[in-house]
Amino acid sequence: MPTTERRVAPRAIVDSRPPLAGRVAGRSVPRRDATARLTGQARYVADLELAGTWHGVTVRATEPRARLLGIDLDPAFDWSRVVVLTAKDVPGDNVVQFAVDDQPVLAIGEVRHVGEPVALIAAPDLPTALAARDHVVLRTEPLPPVLDPMASECVFAHFEIAKGDPDAALAGADLVIEGTYTVGRQEQLYLETQGMLAVPREDGGVTVHGSMQCPYYVHAALRRALALDDAHLSVVQSETGGGFGGKEEFPSGLAIHAAMLAMRSGRPVRMIYDRHEDLVATTKRHPAIIRSRMGISRDGRLVAQDVDVVMDAGAYATLSHVVLSRGTIHAGGPYACPNVRIRSRAVMTNTPPSGAFRGFGAPQVEFAAEMQVNRAAEALGISPAALRERWAYRVGDVTATGQVLRDSVAAVTVLERAVGASRFEEVRAAAAGARAARGAGDGVAPERASAADPRGRAGAGREHLAHGIGVALGWHGAGFTGSGEANLASVVALEVTADGRIVLYTDSTEIGQGSRTVLPQLVAEELGVDLDLVHVAPTDTSIVPNSGPTVASRTTMVVGGLLVTAARRLRAEVEARTGRPFAASYLDDVRGHGATRVTERFAGYPGIAWDEPSHLGDAYPAYGWTAVVAEVDVDLDTGEVAVRRVVSADDVGRAVNPLLATGQIEGGTLQGVGYATIEEARVDGGRLLNDRLATCVVPTSMDAPEIESILVEEPFSGAPHGAKGLGELPMDVPAPAVVAAIQDATGAWIHDLPASPERILAALREREAGIGGREAAR
Amino acid sequence: MTISIGTAVRFTVNGVPVVAEGPGSRRLLDVLRDDLGLTGTKEGCGEGECGACSVLLDGRVVNSCLVPIGQVAGGDVRTVEGLATDGRLGALQEAFLQGGAVQCGFCTPGMLASAAAFLASRTPPTDEAVREAIAGNLCRCTGYTKIVEAIQVAAGAEVPVERSEPPEAPTWGAPFASPERPASGEPATAPPSLRVPVRPPADARRPDLVAVRTLPEALHRLAEGGYRPIAGGTDLMVGLEAGTADPSVPLLDLWALDELRGIRLEGSGLVLGALTTYAELRASPVVREHLPAVARMAGGVGAVQIQNRGTLGGNLVNASPAGDTLPLLLAADAEIVVQSVRGERAIPATAFWTGYRRTALAPDELVVGVRVPLPPARHVVFRKIGTRRAQSIAKASVAVAWRTDESGAWRDVRVALGAVAERAIRAPETEAVLEGRVPARDVADEAARVVAREITPIDDVRSTAEYRRAAVARVLRRIVLEGGDAVAEAKLA
User: N or C: which end of chain A has fewer CB within 10 A?
Assistant: First the structure.
């Protein structure tokens, strides 16, 4: 065997603070469910098998908007072995329960987007169900669709937050940077498609197993649409092959579909989307148009921001108002500014509904904010890293919503770490030199470049590659917005069972991020017991309490915090009885006292006040901070971009498991890089164009940069363990860092995501023409 | 031998003999999951893009969603369930576990298959080599960093990594415990048994597959009519799954025709068998020496799984204007050799593609190979502009061939282009610009201007007409300026 370089040291760097008390939390223990996943034993919903299971499929609308006149079944087909359901068969309310009751379980009267579910079919086998679907005819009458978000008159949600006097400040500013930025739809592309298995019960109820992030969302939706009570319903999360927000709200409707078919057919029914259906029918990240004006004083102070955000919500509101709210609050970026106005709206179009995707409104607006800062730095002639350092939030600063940032503000720290580790200024200086050497100032014209080469022929053959580096700074509110966490009032429980096991109860789902490892780590640490003594109850709504959804980067922070508190109470209770340390005495306590169960309900973080109608106050209990430096090579002939290296420094409060935390950073970073360069779900005429995986592309291992993650730990005092949100943070600003690097390499600003080769080449050619034109005029 | 409904296909899975029933075009993936209960192998897309269904077939990593079961007869399939031994993780699995290379786990079984094939190849585990080995396996969770590192650790482990007991997550009950589970004596966690054979439901999407053992037999069948030839299936199986290929036509399985395999020098030319795979093309010392652009092109098709199954003949007959081999063969003056019961003929590449996905092939004819002349001192350069750096379909591609005379002028210039017209084309006006000229800057600029006029690209889901026109012109210009293979080497690899 050839000798090879052996690299075992992880690339991640952990900012060295003393780890949490000790033995378990703060350590990189391998994830507990990895073995099942490495041996093929982990059961995802498509792997579950029950004898006699039928297969369900969905009949979908094919027009962006139409009156639905009727649903005809081809009499030539044998319908006797098939169940067909339409809107009139919904037992309860024909509504997929979410914040707004506008999305039907099955369309009635009017279809509002291509791919909208209209009817359901179940058959003993999949080929029969698919054949039946081919024999359903939707009788429709087309209606004029609304496809341009700027022209839409239907506003699902709007916000305006303001402080100071932005108009006066802009009028008085020495420099005003103005820009319009657009960001495309992005597909979550969890590797496991959506799927549910519904099992009818003898008591008239139903149990639904499936791939999901939020069992109690599904539970509530089933209760409403099926008109069942809690006793007749259970929702069980099966192993889930990724979510990224895509399995936050969408699974509720699919669960209702499968349950309706199961209850009608009296059989277990499974519905597993194939990739094409998953791409066409499920939510994407909201596309957005952001207009921004930034006022700057002569001495380089940020004096005003005026931002206008329009998000395309698609045909139904789903959770667009929450996405928009987060987008609104984050739109100014992590920068102190005395005069701010942010206006936003989410509008209806006849396109498939937009929905949750990691970052949840923040990546869209932070792209625009960071682009504005970059252009300000260019205009001021100073380093974009230095300008950020000057403007970044510090403890005591006041946000656009009037929140005083009291602690755990690490914007400057993450920036310093990322800039230092990437040797940002050095690389930037080299790139500027190379740009100048290519001729025509910072131009990129290959014609000029080769003209400058007296040989007229290539040397090393690499002069068509331009190297550049870019930086971005981001923030992400951890947990639900405003009063969200208080309203959720999440519940967890911890128990020493009668047979001496320690079991934690939560509906927080393991979707790959590692909660099934991290939460037991926190509990084991507090109880002072070995990690493998802590068991996790199955994620089944008939067993676990509602700890809130697994979204919003809240699981380790909020649910983990509740479990820490619960563990402290459990420990105190047992130790009070035994007079000895918990670990040494809990089994004795069980023998004498029996089981002990403590339940912990979230009661709000201290000192947090929020006014929902005005959107003023403490928008989040704490913020995570992220700085990203990206290096790229741009092919000046084709506009192709290779992202070579990304350094991401992220303040997560406390890293309970650094191995898993850096895994989150690396994964989020690549999704951000994809968002920046190649990922876009393109909708034209209400129809998804790239509706196969061959055309809906995401980065492969060869597209992925070398990623260095730096964990910074600036604890959040409001959480007992200091942890803040992590999941979404690394997704927020890789895109502006990459686009800044493209500008650094080429001199061309790209204002739209993705910064595709098509857009880059167009910008390069425009610059070349401009330079050529200027020179010709001389 | 005819494989049709009711006929059994015998092969081994993880060393255990099994039998599969049903039409020969059934997907290996479905047989593994539905018939054999080996659900470790996942379906992520059904079109050979994500690699979640990757398994080892006779030691090579393949997408099991693209392999018709008839082609597995007598073969040896390895799945993730066969990786652990005696309940202990292997070194590769252990490296994934300890290195944090597993998140949601859905890509993991396929990723392990690609990694295992890579380790078996004994290729030095550089970052680049490992990334290429897993480029056919999408992962959306990890950013790949920890996966690459884990594979390097496993490769570097000259002694097995010290194995810890797998940290079995304590389960609170069976993984699939529900009140509805049918009562049975089996524990819920029992390993799936190889239950065989299972009669699958009739499925109109799965045509019969007729295997032939000799070329004359294949030609005879084609002369009878009513068959559609299938080689590696990397396009046809996708079409059947997506409903774009007609499932009522039985497939004529050419995979066993070894006489259509092979790469050899013949006279002053190179002969490539129609069933030669991209993997064989890129690995062949003969190709690498005499026509290195073909080896490089083959290395840029799909990723390892596709390269192991996709064939030269399949790409030619599929006749996509974006097919990677087409511009190269046009530029290299190749001839397509076809046979039928009526005899053999050679069709110049320039006459082979007649329109969008149309060829000059008669219904009874089969492509048996390609002859590429190897004139002395000829350069051939190929550049693909793709949607990403692996698993990519061309937005446009450019192939240029020439020889340089004593004066430094280009002679016998060929410029061929993919994905800029309804078929792969030569660009004669552009060739005329370059013919007999020394490749200086003004010549390059003129060629770029002319080629932009000469092509008729369109807007589609992958790119725009404007981009294709500009990118092709600039790449051609660059190739002329570089005057050699250097440009291909320096492209964003």
Answer: C
